[in-house]
Amino acid sequence: MVITMVLVAAGVGGFLYLRNIDQEAPDAHIARLVREATGQQPIKKAFWSKNQKFDDAFRDEFRKLMQLNRDYMTQEKNADMSAIPKLGTPDSFADPTLAADGLRQLHTLYDIDMGQEQKVQQIVAELRNFFQTADLSESERQEALSKFDAGIAEPLSKRQVVVSAEQAWIQSIDDVYNYATSNHAVFTMNNGQLVITDNDVLQNFNSKARNMDARRSEFLQKQEAFSKDQVQSIQKLGVSPKDMGMQ
User: What are the angstrom distances between the C-alpha of 21 and each of 53, 142, 189?
Assistant: First the structure.
């Protein structure tokens, strides 16, 4: 269930508008700000005031993101998941009351993920607002906003793929259990096996169960790919997952 977002490229695009003022390459500049925000190196004061304002704003927002990750990991760690292993078992389909606690716990974890998503979007909005309200000419502001939007589009798109896959998986689980509950009268257990006495219900249930399994596999695959991509990205910045609050 863990999906942790590291916004490694948030300010790169918007910062490109300063390329003729500061001799430091934008990617190197962002990497330095990240290391400064994590405490990996001392904060370097910018020569130009507009650079300093950007640096301070970016470090502040990145610190918020790191704390957001830490809070998220704590919530996930402390969440009760004791009943979730019962989900998907024959008994849980035959007796809906056995699935109730597991479904509730699963949705609690899902709500934590969706809360994380909203907070990440808020940080993106705050970063974008910095460029909207910065002391820039109109042409510089539009250039900064355009490049910020372009820079943030890819990491947000990658995250959304995982979020959408998780949503589809949770919906498929609800679909299976809602169907089992609605047709509870024809669900029985026989020697540890689930028996469905109505053939139409059996076919529909099997279809929904296969969809649930497929959505789970898809979510886990996309989640793993996203996590690897994040780790590679932050390693390029000279920090570790632990520094970012991901462990």
Answer: 14, 18, 73
